[in-house]
Amino acid sequence: MTALALEEPAERVGRGWTAALSLANGAIWVGWYGPLQILLARQSAHFAPGTGLSKESLLAWVTCVGAVVSLAANPLFGALSDRTVSRHGRRTPWIVAGAAGGALSLLLLGVADAVWVLFLGWCLVQLTLNAAFAAVTAAVPDRVPRLQRGAVGGWLGAAQILGVVAGTGLATAAGALGGGGVGAGYAACAVFTLLGVAPYVLRHPDLRLAAGDRPAWSWRSFAAGFRLSPRAHPDLAWAWLTRFLINLGNALVLLYLYYYLRDRLHHADPDSGVLILTAVNGVTLLATVVLGGVWSDRVGRRKPFVLWSGVLMAVATGMLSGWQTWSGAVVAAAVLGVGFGVFTSVDFALMTDVLPAALDRGKDLGVINIANSLPQVAAPVVAAPLVAHLGGYRVLYLVAAGVGLLGSLLVHRIKSVP
Question: pTM of the predicted model, to two decimals?
Answer without folding.
Answer: 0.81
